[in-house]
Amino acid sequence: MAVETPDQTLRNIAEQARAAVGADRCTIYELLRDRNEVVARAALGLPEGEEIRLPITRGVIGFVARTGRSLRLRDVYNDPRFDPSVDQRTGYRTRSMVCVPVVAPDRTVLGAIQAINKPNGPFTDEDEQQLIRLCAQVALVLKPGD
Question: What is the per-residue pLDDT across 8-23, written as a single tens digit (0 to 9) for each?
């Protein structure tokens, strides 16, 4: 029996997250403190070979990684924190989003889970709670110091 790699585990968690909240896409980001950036470790719906890597000073993901606070947006283009560069690169149109931090037991932010575009209405408190529950699994993969 093959052992699952960390990236396979993160992809499986991203699939669970996408299904749990009914999103079109889901991405798990890792915060790379030494580089002051976030990088997608599992990105569902992203074109093959496309990488998402952003400075923590940009975008919703940067805000969540910097502050450790969740964010839910009904219309991302009406929020100044949204960075449309990934949409511009991929041709995908993000409309709504929920993003929650992945936090270690010592309260260190390790990354974030982001779900985008829920076809049947806005993201809810329950959606946010679903993602928060999955963050514990992600934290086991994105251990501090890795």
Answer: 999 999 999 999 999 9
Q: What is the length of the chain?
A: 146
Task: Report the predicted TM-score, pTM, of the whole model to 2 decimal places.
Answer: 0.92
Q: What is the DSSP string of the chain?
A: -PPPPHHHHHHHHHHHHHHHHT-SEEEEEEEEGGGTEEEEEEEETPPTT---EEETTSHHHHHHHHH---EEES-GGGSTT--THHHHHH------EEEEEEE-TTS-EEEEEEEE--TTS---HHHHHHHHHHHHHHHHHS-TT-
Q: Domains in the chain, please, with CATH?
A: 6-141 (3.30.450.40)
